[in-house]
Predict the structure.
Amino acid sequence: MLTILRKELTDYFTSMRCFILFLLVFIASAVAIYAAYQGIRVASIDPGPVFIKLFTTGEDLPSLVVFIALLVPIIGIALGFDAINGERSSGTLNRILSQPVYRDSVINGKFLAGLITMAIMIGAIILIVGGYGLRMIGVPPTAEEIIRIFIYFISAVIYGAFWMGLAILFSVLFRSLAVSLLFPMAIWILLGIPASVFNPYISFFVPAVSNSVSMQLMLARLSPYFLFEEAMTVLLVPAWRGYGLLTSTTTSSMLPNPLSLDQSLLIVWPQFTALIAITAVCFAISYIVFMRQEIRST
Amino acid sequence: MGKKIVVKTEDLTKKYDKVTVVDRLNLEVAENEVFGLLGPNGAGKTTTILMLLGLTEPASGTAKIFGFDSTRQPLKVKRLAGYLPEKVGFYDTLTARENLRFIAELNNIGYAESEPLIEQVMKSVGLGDVGDKTVNKFSRGMKQRLGIADVLVKKPKVAFLDEPTAGLDPEGINQIIDLIGNLPKMGTTVVFSSHRLYEVQRVCHSIGILSKGKMVVQGALDELGRDALAEGRFRIEVETAEPSPQLVKVIKNIKGVRKVEAEGNMLHITTDADLRAEISKAVVESGVALIQVKIQEFSLDDIYMKYFHEG
């Protein structure tokens, strides 16, 4: 499997595709830095650690967190959509599978290589923004902030792994590259639409939904996009202490101080688990389908 | 003949959506021979090869290579067997050498061993000069030859080549066929499928003809020809300057001659063995000028057509 992993990594890093993705990453970082520069003055008045605000502030512009939530799916899909059917159509799949390697090491190697590439990209964005931000504001991060950012990094990679797993799944299911690219793209766009848009339609069939905010929230959480954003807000804005149903009385009686790291983690734990779970499910399905698939090209 | 059987199937059957593609196939290939798998398109040649390699699961029956079950011990089989798919593909952005190196690595061949080996096989397929070119610059014929190099890199004990000459020009076909013919000397048994009878006849020791998933006939090439067309006998043609009834009588008396037919200057003789020497001697002794003596060779075309007319 290491051989396949190494080959895939070389492929990724020498491909045009990766060059374009890296370009995208740098543009995103530049925009995020600019957004943080615009917003940090206002934001730093609020209590809580300053450094981490680099990632979440942007006055009129989307902040880095929003950017990553949008960008990571594209990276994941771009890395995964031709994983299996690309090899199939170029006639290399049966040549590889006739070598003494287990079939699963092919798909594992590809997944792992994608994961590493994605980790490098996301890591690059975070480090660029962090580094430039440090120069800009001159406030060093505390240990807790570094841990929060690190956890954020890990979750962003898992979030990306979900999209890549989805793309790989379609590349196993469909022989055509166009189809396996369009399907995850369509899902990405569909899930990217705020769930509130669908609420009127859903409540038409299930009237209970329109009255219950928690039910609406539950529906929204079906989308990994929403899950990720929710979790990341809690993680990176320490003052955030929950989602959904906070009435004005509860808010006003809350102390306006930031939550400690373990408290924040406790809040996002379900989201975190759900993200890992859907990633695992995606990968498991493609794994099972691939293991039993006919490898004939015709 | 006491030869070791290295590829063997027993009642091998494969069904796709209830359509039987390979039907209770029994096949045997002896060590260090070239076996030609013949048959029209859709006869089940590729499916048979895939099952032998353990890339496709049979519906029933077994396929064994060197005694290893292809379905149950696919890794052991894949270590011994090389496979050239019908539509062979390479990583376009890598060079020929890098493509081969990847395969060597997948076979756990260390760098120190694989480099000279790659050099050697590239040379043997005539790609010694272009090893560092990326594969997307290769022509169809070069890719096909690289495909053979790719099979050879793992030093297989048995090589399965699926239509190795499809889509090549005559020169390319000759090169590939020569390569295949040389493999048994290097200790590699070859099974290759084709529907070009001429090339099969040139290099194969024995053949099997598949039709609609069934093995129609199988055996050594020369025996098959005689069985199919002359009921197991030899046919010798003698051309003389002026045949006489006397000569016919003399030849008929040679031991082993079954039948003599005269047709103009030609004599068609059916015999039990290769009696060319005795016959020419008899002709010369009878004082008739001998022009030529020829033993009739059976072309695979004849065999093939005969079985397909019967089938």
